[in-house]
Amino acid sequence: MRKKSKQKFVVCINNSGYPASLELYKIYRNIPDEDAESKGDLRIVDESGEDYIYPESFFTPIEIPQKVKQALLHTT
Q: Which of 23, 51, 63, 66 is the most buried (most CB within 10 A)?
């Protein structure tokens, strides 16, 4: 049985075609989605507050301190 992916954070490095939905250089929450990832995409909680699928190449993963992660996960 495969382990579930942990929730990760990424930084937007390209927002071509999505300037209202994605801000360059902003930290976004990546929702684990194996189907999207298998197609080269990521499920991201964007500026609308909802999660949508975007090309993985638009983001780079980052490691953040636990305190920051907790704060980001508890914001609305």
A: 51
CATH for 43: 2.30.30
Check if the beta carbon of residue 22 is closer than 8 Å to that of residue 46. Answer: yes
Q: What's at 26, amino acid-wise? A: K
Distances (CA, A) of 64 to 9, 18, 38: 8, 25, 25
pLDDT tens per residue, the chain (76 residues)? 334 446 699 999 999 999 999 999 999 999 999 999 999 999 999 999 999 999 999 999 999 888 888 887 776 5
Residue 34 to residue 73: CA distance in whole angstroms: 21
Instruction: Quote the number of domains for the chain.
Output: 1
Full domain range(s) for residue 38:
8-73
What is the C-alpha to C-alpha distance for residues 65 and 54, in angstroms, rounded to an integer? 25
